[in-house]
Design a protein that fits this description.
This protein has 179 residues and is of the alpha/beta class. It has a single domain, classed as 3-Layer(aba) Sandwich (Rossmann fold). 33% of the residues lie in helices and 28% in strands. It has a six-stranded mixed beta sheet, sandwiched between helices. Strand 5 and strand 6 form a beta hairpin.
Length: 179
């Protein structure tokens, strides 16, 4: 019987284990830009293009909290009373200019917005959580997109959907907020 030395076995298993762990997520980001974390930021409504009701609002809440964790002290969120509360609405304001006007009225420098394209537990025996989002940071004064990122991540069957979402959104936002 052929036996591999332990060091050789470790050298073979470590890359396989690393590939397995990273195969659960995919992210792409624009190069980091110089943003001011001490400026006023707002979180605008996220479009929800999933079949999961209120996935956009959930992503907004996670993003707002993570901006604070990443060092942005002054963050405001678009008021729910101005957004639709229709269960089947996609979450984006009917008039994007209206949300930017609101951001300007708040004296914001940057606005974070995005789209949620997956927010669910996969169907099957294990029911793994899966999240997919696109994020954009907009210069409020002129509506120009300064930075964007897109990512998707799935977790293990015992992971919470919110934990997978938090991990993904944090991995996308961190380079933009802390270049």
């Amino acid at each position: 019987m052929f036996r591999l030395p332990k060091t050789m076995l470790a050298r073979l298993l470590l890359p396989c284990l690393a590939a397995l762990l990273t195969a659960c997520s995919v992210t792409d980001r624009a190069p980091a830009v110089r943003l001011e974390p001490d400026a006023r930021w707002v979180v605008l409504p996220f479009a929800n293009v999933t079949e999961t009701p209120f996935a956009g609002q959930r992503a907004e809440a996670v993003s707002e909290g993570l901006l604070r964790v990443l060092g942005v002290a002054d963050v405001r969120r678009y008021p729910a009373s101005l957004a639709s509360d229709n269960l089947f609405d996609n979450g984006a304001p009917k008039d994007a200019d209206k949300s930017l006007e609101w951001a300007r009225s708040q004296g914001a420098r940057y606005a974070l917005t995005g789209t949620v394209d997956e927010w669910r537990y996969k169907v099957g025996v294990d029911g793994e959580p899966a999240v997919g989002v696109t994020l954009s940071i907009v210069e409020v004064s002129d509506g120009r997109v300064l930075w964007s990122a897109v990512g998707a991540k799935s977790g293990w069957s015992r992971d919470a959907l919110s934990a997978v979402a938090q991990t993904l959104i944090k991995s996308l936002l961190t380079p933009a907020v802390r270049p």
